[in-house]
Amino acid sequence: MIVGMTVLLIGVAMLVLPGPAIVVIPVGLAILATEYAWARHWLRVLRETTEKGAEKLKLRAIFSRKTASNPQGATPEQ
After folding, report:
1. DSSP state letter for 19
2. Mean pLDDT for the chain overall
């Protein structure tokens, strides 16, 4: 518990200090998730949110590639 809380608190501090908070916070939650249900819950929420965000970015990248390769008004024959 001490190691998990320390890593988690360091990750939270890295939100305002320089450092990879988006990497350290999930590591701290994963350590705590071995013991506590609340940490498993927040780790699951974080994972689902990250997956949804990645899917949105993927869709946005695909859409922007399609519009860049075929600007409005251009026909495939041109």
Report:
1. S
2. 86
CA distance 9 to 21: 10
CA distances from 54 to 8, 28, 46, 63 (A): 23, 22, 12, 14
Residue with tokens 């939100």: 15
The pTM of this model reads 0.68
Closest CA relative to residue 32, chosen from 54, 7, 11, 51: 7
Alpha-carbon radius of gyration of the chain: 20
The two structure tokens encoding residue 25 = 């916070």
Encode pLDDT of 16-31 as tens digits.
Answer: 999 999 999 999 999 9
Residues in Cβ contact with 30 at an 8 Å cutoff, skipping those fewer than 6 apart: 43
